[in-house]
Amino acid sequence: MGKLIEKSCFILFFIFICQSVLASKTSMRYQEPCKRLELYYHDILFNGTDLANATSAKATNKTALGDFKFGMLAVFDDPITLDNHLLSPPVARAQGFYFFDKKNDFNAWFAFTLVFNSTQYKGTINIMGADLIAAQTRDLSVVGGTGDFFMTKGIATVQTDTLQGDDYFRLKLDVKLYECYNI
Question: What's the CA gap between 129 and 150, in Å, rounded?
Fold first, then answer.
């Protein structure tokens, strides 16, 4: 009788482990995004003379701790376009901030909202994360949204498209949304 109970417990334990492994494998499958947007982010940092064109400004200056702008904070209201031309009609605005947070290399941390108000989309997408500037591509987290992007989650893959000194840079954003709700 004791061996029967022991064998039954072993069989139940084995079945439980097999189901757990199968459940974890099915949840780790590759998932296609439910919505994908390819956008361009244009940032023109105010340099003291370009008041009419600037879309961002330093809120703090860099510190003396290294040569990589450590401690500099910039606030922005940047145009987002469908192509890489700065003068193309914006489809959204990126509103938020970034700061340089590494003393021995260029590294920034971004937190911003893409604000859409067009015929195609209405609502917001919230994006945040570390921008490891030296890397060819970087992934920032999509942590929520409103309107057409209600409670969305996903990844925004960032790639530097152009860099013109300290005054202008353009990023290519490949926004892949994996949770989409139709409300």
Answer: 20
Confidence category of residue 25, pLDDT binned at 50, 70, 90: low
CA 175 to chain centre: 7
Are 175 and 142 in contact by the 8 Å Cβ rule? The answer is: yes
> In the predicted model, is pLDDT for residue 27 greater than 90?
no
Q: What is the pTM of this model?
A: 0.79
Q: Are 121 and 138 in contact (CB under 8 A)?
A: no
Cβ neighbours for 126, distance < 8 A, ≥ 6 positions apart:
112, 113, 142, 143, 144, 145
Q: Give the lowest-confidence range in 12-26, 91-105, 142-156.
A: 12-26
Tokens of 19: 């189901």
C-alpha pair distances (Å), 1 with each of 4, 51, 88, 152 = 5, 87, 80, 55
Calculate the alpha carbon distances from 106 to 60, 69, 72, 89 in Å.
Answer: 17, 8, 11, 31
